[in-house]
Amino acid sequence: MHSVQQDVAHCALRPPAAQSYGPGMDSQAPKRGILHLDGWAGRRAVPVLVHRFTPRRVVISSTAELLLPGRRVTPGTMVMVPRYAVAVED
Fold it and tell me: Is 12 domain-assigned?
């Protein structure tokens, strides 16, 4: 039987696995998209620039000042939002 300390030491010695999210948009120009926000006054659609996708989220930057839950985003700041909140325009 091995101890927990051996498990921790074994995990610490392994190099982290490289995460691949498939073909990203890092080398491409950002695409235009719409961020849908639900609030107490109704739904708002805010224009954003979509930079890349991860398995669950999208990295965007806003073109205007934006109020997200728990934070204020200034224009040009990159933030991660859920995929279901963004519609990419082609």
Answer: no
Q: Is residue 59 part of a domain?
A: yes
Question: Is residue 6 included in any domain, yes or no?
Answer: no
Whether 25 and 52 have beta carbons less than 8 Å apart is answered as yes
What's the pTM?
0.67
79-84 contact pairs (CB < 8 A, 24+): 80/54, 81/35, 81/57, 82/56, 82/57, 82/58, 83/53, 83/56, 83/57, 83/58
Q: Classify 7 as helix, strand or coil.
A: helix
**How does pLDDT run across 32-48, given as a tens digit for each residue?**
999 999 989 899 999 99
